[in-house]
Amino acid sequence: MGLGSLSGGEILILMVIILLVFGANRLPEAGKAVGKGLREFKRALSEAESSIQRLPAAPHGEESQPQSAKPKRLVE
Question: Which letter does DSSP use for residue 67 in this model?
């Protein structure tokens, strides 16, 4: 059973359980914390995507590996 297949009755039961766990007074605080966490996650995901897009594309046939990660020759 996926999250998308919840019926109205199941959602109501989940809401009652959440209300019992957090209580009526702490429910708004929990909602704010979840919202803040989701916003922070989306912001970090957006920053990661933009930094990946700024990386130069590797020429065909070469691995995408930063120059600093390649091993250095100690003996010539």
Answer: G
Q: How far apart are CA 52 and CA 35, in angstroms?
A: 26
Q: Is the dihedral of CA 37, 43, 44, 46 positive or negative?
A: positive
| Predicted pLDDT of residue 23 | 86
Domain edges within the chain? 27-53
Confidence (pLDDT) at 42: 96
Q: What distance in Å separates the CA atoms of residue 55 and residue 50, rounded to the nearest whole number?
A: 9
Note the pLDDT tens digit of each residue in 10-39.
989 988 898 888 888 888 888 899 899 999
Output the 3-class SS for 5-29.
HCCHHHHHHHHHHHHHHHHHHHHHH
Q: In this structure, are residues 34 and 26 in contact, taking their beta carbons and an 8 Å threshold? A: no
Identify whether the C-beta of residue 28 lies closer than 8 Å to the C-beta of residue 19.
no
